[in-house]
Amino acid sequence: MKKLYFITGSQDLYGEETLAHAEKDSKAMTEFLNGRLKDVAAVEFAPIVKTAAEAEKICVKASADEDCIGVIMWMHTFSPAKMWIRALQALKKPMLHLHTQFNEKLPYDSIDMDFMNLNQSAHGDREFGFICTRLGVKREVVVGYYQHEDVIKQIRRFAQAALAVDFGRTMRVAMLGNNMRDVAVTDGDRVESEIKYGWNVNYYGIGDIVEIANSVTESEIDGKMKEYSEKYEMKTDNIAAVREQAKYEVALEKFIERENISAFTDTFQDLHGLNQLPGLAAQNIMAKGIGFGPEGDYKTAALGAVLQKMAEGREGATGFMEDYTYDLTAGDELELAAHMLEVSPVFAASKPEIQVHPLDIGGKSDPARLVFDGVSGEGIAVSMIDMGNRFRLVCAEITLVNQPKPMPKLPVARLMWKLKPDFKTGAAAWIYAGGAHHAVVSTALTAEDIRLFAKMTGTELVVIDGKTDLNSFEQQLEMLDTLAGLKK
Q1: For range 444-463, the mean pLDDT
Q2: Stated pTM of the model
């Protein structure tokens, strides 16, 4: 199981009695936090740190431990910060600095200097915080009593983000075909993606899937059809087209297992050997936690897999989505998001229908796909773009709404949402930031989750929310461009 190290700072000047007390408190806190977080990651006690050598040793150990996704730092007493310099330079895992103390309330009637020397996190954490800032250490600071629910919620959010970052470090992404011809925003530096995030992105010929599909048995297709009938409404007489998608899904699942793939792309421009563009097949796989990007968009596929990992255990939906068209009714503007085929059924407001319709692009047979109206509620849309010398995340807060009227002639899955703070500002800010027409949409995650991911990975982030002002937003973008230029 993945774990978080709980590291407590002190020093060797207080004597054995004080240090023993600090260790006892630290073990109790570790046990409590483990009980509240063990569904995400185990919290593991680390011996009290008293010297520079001990600090460096535990940080090196955490960095080398494949099961460690991050560390929680807490200064029980005063801990001179120079002893943490080599340790922090060696630390390669995300850090949460927990500014708390063992006691919730002060013992007003009995408080003395012994109590003060033992319980001086207000002192020690400021010293530790300075050296982190001086060294430029990116960390999350959580403030408050460690047993309070708001503090536990923040620590849990950190753990989920750290788990997702760790997942990405060994993630393999398959591009079935290449990027859509002449398209810029969905392309990117695959080598830099692996250097920065660990995403191992490789090209595979569509023939790899065709070869497996040609060996899929009728009984395997029957099994997949049974799954479809249990999960979806069959609204077509063209069962042959649905069975074709079932064959593709069986083939994709075998390929994903064989190559240890967590996310994949395809493109309608490279379907040699397939009769249909994978629609229903891709949709059903996406609902199982596999990231997906159309037209060779590996960044969205990979980001989708990572954010789905981050959202595990939360209510809501997370998956790929594409900006498509607008309802520009003054004062009530809406965006209609959809795709040719590939929208995950996790977004369905009711039981999806399997339908077969022509596809006016790709030159293949009519594909089976899931058709549904989307969920409503608060959410975010996140786009990752390659700026040439760095990656940027664009995160927009949105409100998903029920579609105002039926769309009987639009045979695709779709979502509708309102932009924040208003349509013109939200759309302009997205375009100024260079946000793509592909995004990962989530009703389970918030901008705070994306901020954590960006911090842990050193990724540039801009957020569009209810407070966004275009003048300030453009100034922020100019500043980011200037800083990126200075770092060249």
Answers
A1: 98
A2: 0.95
Return the percentage of the chain with pLDDT > 90, whole number: 89
Distance (Å) of CA 231 to CA 225, 297, 330, 442: 10, 28, 39, 22
| Residue showing tokens 């608060």 | 378
| Cα dist from 48 to 74, 366, 465, whole Å | 10, 65, 42
**Alpha carbons 189 and 211: distance in angstroms, whole number:** 29
Structural element, H or E, at residue 87: helix 85-90
Report yes or no: 479 and 433 within 8 Å, Cβ to Cβ: no
Q: Which amino acid is at 374?
A: G
Q: Which of 385, 186, 383, 386 has its CA nearest to residue 294?
A: 186
Give the CA distances from residue 361 to residues 149, 176, 270, in Å, rounded to whole numbers and listed in that order. 52, 18, 12
CB 453 within 8 A of CB 310: yes
Strands (E), 100-241: 140-143, 172-176, 200-204, 233-234
More confident residue, 311 or 121: 311
Report how far residue 128's alpha carbon sits from residue 11's, in angstroms, rounded to the nearest whole number. Answer: 12
